[in-house]
Amino acid sequence: MGIIKEKMIQDLEIRGMSKRTQESYLGCIKQFVKYYMKSPDLLTLEDINSYQLYLKRDRQISVSYFNIWVAHVCRTVWVVTCF
Q1: CA 71 to CA 62: how far, in whole Å?
Q2: How many CA atoms lie within 13 A of 11 on its CB side?
Q3: Alpha helices of the chain — where are they, by DSSP H?
Q4: Count of structural domains within the chain
Q5: What is the mean pLDDT of residues 15-35?
Q6: How many whole angstroms separate alpha carbon 18 and alpha carbon 8?
Q7: Which structural domain, as residue segments, surrounds residue 12?
């Protein structure tokens, strides 16, 4: 993720997120990128929606994890940094 990861970290630092929170958010993004196995700058909003369905239907993740992913990672990190 290189440059994109650094930009995400900068965005999180600007928002005052702790190192632990940054690690958590970046871990979520890493799983998202790993799922599609392509560069983050090639992923689309449709990919985000599809991944959300995967998290809910296939992985049956907890509501709290889903809320973290959608409300924080997706909106404040991924969309701000990459789109």
Answers
A1: 14
A2: 19
A3: 2-14, 19-36, 45-53, 63-67, 80-82
A4: 1
A5: 88
A6: 13
A7: 2-82
